[in-house]
Amino acid sequence: MSEQIKTKRLVMKTNINIDEYGEFNYPNDNEQSINILSLKPKSAEDTGFVFCLSSDEKEIVCHIGFRNDRKPMEITYGTEEKYQGQGYMTEALNAFLKWFFENTEYKLINGLIPDSNTKSRSVAEKNGFVFSEKADNNVSWYKLEKVI
Fold it and tell me: What's the maximum distance between 2 C-alpha atoms anywhere in the chain?
């Protein structure tokens, strides 16, 4: 990314760049462009976004990644255990979503949240996600559409 995104307490880092066409480019040996929808699950640390403490940019607090095996543009996120319950993920997701919708052509992000994970659902809802549909007995889809 050409610029570093900062929140009150966090700095967002990634190895993904966006070109002039809004395509995500992953720097690798071949310098090939990749479609963000082709990213594999649980790869945020490698091909997604990590948030570090502003005071210690080596200390990873939380991460945001993508997957597409269930729905297009599905977001995944998580917080390191010692930072849970302190509002870091809400802060990180808010900054990421603002950047994402301002810098890409995507108009919808989905999230699959276990019904028992009230903390994850709360983070999503604080950032504008709304219930979309029941996926299975114990999980539900939430979505966020870009406001135009």
Answer: 43
Residue 31: pLDDT above 60?
no
Find tokens 């999980």 and name the residue.
139
User: Using alpha carbons only, how large is the chain's radius of gyration in Å?
Assistant: 15
Q: What is the pLDDT of residues 65-111, one digit of tens each?
A: 877 778 878 888 999 999 999 999 999 999 999 988 887 778 899 99
Cβ 73 vs Cβ 146: under 8 Å? no
Residue 8 token pair: 């009150």
